[in-house]
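COMPLEX REQUEST
Ligand: dihydroflavine-adenine dinucleotide
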Amino acid sequence: MSLFNKLIIVTLPLVPKFLVYIFAKKYIAGPDLEDAVKLITEFNSKGICATIDLLGEEIKNREEALQVVASYREVLATIVAHKLDSNISIKPTHLGLKIDKEFCYQNIRDLVLEAKKNNNFVRIDMEDHTCTSDTIDVYLRLHKDFQNVGVVIQSYLRRTIDDLNLLIRHKSNLRLCKGIYAETREIAYKDPEIINYNFVYSLEKLLASGCYVGIATHDEKIVWQALSLIDKLKLKKDEYEFQMLLGVDEQLRNIIVSAGHRLRVYVPFGKKWYVYSVRRLKENPNIARNVIKNIFGLK
Ligand code: FDA
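STATUS: Structure written out below.
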């Protein structure tokens, strides 16, 4: 680990909350659902769609998980009420995966069913490697009954090629990203170049097999490779989409949208922004490195 990253981990608990907020606010809509609605209304007017994420840590008991289900129901109702072009992204541990897998499955199923009533969609985010198999199991069970659900696959994981073969057989709807959690070398590739090769290899496999892919990256080299694959495979605009995180490289976002591609922004909101931001920064201090690089315009 670099000295910079060690410094971030050691000093983070000492940083006052308002200072963390200065870093975090660019990446978070705000504490309330209305904050997300305001932002997404603006995105939609520019032809950009969204996915809403309710911030939260792994929950401690079933009541908390059910509260999360209720909050997401409110998000779905709000999307309808405001006619937003947005779906939702959920995290299995937020809905009880570590308490009871069956309970988590039922909670996600409730949301998928609720979303289906209004033609909406639920994306199941992928968390650290201890959740991968269970998340894919839950997704494949849901996928048997529903079309409006998708999952995420991470190109840094060594197991990803095997997972892809399974998911492609089921014609899955996938978001492909590099992966954000701190994993060991046994579990994940550490070399950024290999992670990129695996991203592009996975993307080609998925697109060529007719799976709908959310291409989730801000890495312009990968965006270019994706564009060349889209061209090579003669894909129509509704057979894939690009996805980016709120607050990251808005210039690249505008370039992709202006070229006529569908682009979805991941919009997190919620009162638990502090715990979320600190955990994310501790787990992966490279985020803070990216933030600092962006603020000072370094390459
Ligand atoms: P890379 O990390 O190489 O970044 C490329 C460039 O983008 C950097 O040089 C930097 O300038 C900029 N950048 C990237 N991230 C930044 C940040 N946070 N702040 C400021 N600048 C930044 N992961 C996961 O494990 N499970 C998941 O479910 C998801 N879901 C998800 C949804 C969406 C829509 C996106 C875009 C990403 C995710 N991720 C994720 C996160 C993903 O795995 C990955 O960590 C980040 O997207 C960064 O990887 P890039 O592909 O952007 O490349």
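REMARKS: The mean pLDDT is 92. DSSP finds twelve helices and eight strands in the chain.
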